Amino acid sequence: MKCLFRCCGHVPGAIAPKDQAAVDDLPAMLTVVRFPEPWTPGSGRDVAVRVGPFIERAHTRPGDDHGLDMIAVTLVHPDSPHAGACLHGRQLGYNCDWLRCKTTSILGFWQPGYTMLTHAASDLPLPDDIGMDPAHYALYTEARKRDDTLDAHTLLCLGPYTQVRHAQQDHDRLTAALDGRETTLVPGFRVSARFGPFDVSDHQLFTDPHEADAVAVLDTAVEGCAHSAS
Description:
Layout: H1 17-34, E1 47-51, E2 54-60, E3 70-76, H2 83-91, E4 99-102, E5 106-109, E6 133-134, E7 137-145, E8 148-161, H3 164-178, E9 189-197, H4 214-229
Antiparallel strand pairs: 1-2, 1-5, 2-3, 3-4, 4-6, 7-8, 7-9
């Protein structure tokens, strides 16, 4: 466990102000670690997230904080929103990027007692790999052979979606458009739409969902597939 403060026993007099602050914060830290306030989806409140051996403060993204397995968050300096914290946070790698956070890494709602357990409190930068992928989502419409679920052809990639609710809306529209036609659109295949993470390395394969009608783009993709097959 990292040393939170130093006090040289052979030197008389009061301890340094910084060390005294650590001593004063210790009871609050021990309390929140022992008795965290349980997190509930959809609350909109900041959460405490484990990042390696540290604990960080994270804003949840409105409208995308209801997931049971994954939500979108951005890591912020523990003293946010103060101006000094913003500057210090940028120096240490805190930014406004949205990340896909597993709910199993959430310890509970954020409380000030967690502050001394953050990277910022130790004046350390956030690691390059914090164990969270960018919170961009995608929809994949695939045609799978009916007798072989492993053999699939991707007809359409839509993304990136920055909020899962927008992806859900298009998913529902595509599913409704496919209702009753899953096995007839592409002979010998079953067509379906599914969620997935947005792979930025393959961005050229994706259609921007904010500039296109999902159902119309799917119809075009199916026509192209039919022409190729013929």
